[in-house]
Amino acid sequence: MARFRHTVTLAPVSRRWLESCVAALHDLAEDTDVEGARLRLPDGRPVPGLVLVRGRHLGPGAQYRPVRDRDGEPDADQCLTVVSWDRRRETALEVVTLDGDPARPARLVCALGLTSAERPREAWLSATLRSSGGKRAEYLGGTGRLHLDLGRWWQATGHGRPRPAPR
Fold first, then answer.
1. Cβ-contact 63, 75 below 8 angstroms
2. What are the DSSP calls for the chain, one per residue?
3. What is the 3-class SS of 33-58, one letter each residue?
4. pLDDT tens string for the chain (167 positions)?
């Protein structure tokens, strides 16, 4: 099996900016109400195109699916699952997408997570693509992983806490 390794340089963002974005997203999700399968924003408007199909809202194992435009039913080929939801420890989600093309069916699984939404320290993403049919299906897949140590990133870019002056 071939393996490729690549280093990517990410443009720095301010720690304060990222922390405020993560906090705002957590606040919005936590302030969202559930009526049956429908999700409602804090102001009462429905969340368009997304329903809760299993579990307790934001609880481990909760599953959400997009709603198909043509018939208003949840899309069986796409699913977002809450793996963990704890602001102080870890937030992790898994997204699964199926492509039912008879010539080349495929499944894409992405997992993403963040350690401590209150003070992010690490972020990660993994993705696996598998094809289960068609000519040369074994060559049409792969796995990728990304791990980001946010503390070291901010330290290296100067966007973390100010460094003490050398003595």
1. no
2. --------PPPP--HHHHHHHHHHHHHHHHH-EEETTEEE-TTSPEEEEEEEEESSTTSTT-EEEEBPTTT--B-TTEEEEEEEE-TTSEEEEEEEEEE--TTS-EEEEEEEEEE-SSS--EEEEEEEEEE-SSTTGGGS-EEEEEEEEHHHHHHHHT-SSPPPPP-
3. EEECCEEECCCCCEEEEEEEEECCCC
4. 677 777 777 777 888 999 999 999 999 999 999 998 999 999 999 999 999 999 999 999 999 999 988 888 888 889 999 999 999 999 999 999 998 777 778 889 999 999 998 899 999 999 999 887 666 666 678 888 999 999 888 888 876 554 543 34
The CA distance from 9 to 18, in Å, is 17
Residues present in the chain in total:
167
pLDDT score of 35 = 92
Q: Which residues is 39 bridged to in the sheet?
A: 34
Which residue bears the tokens 């990410």?
10
The residue whose two tokens read 């809450």 is: 82
Cα separation, 74 vs 16, whole angstroms? 37
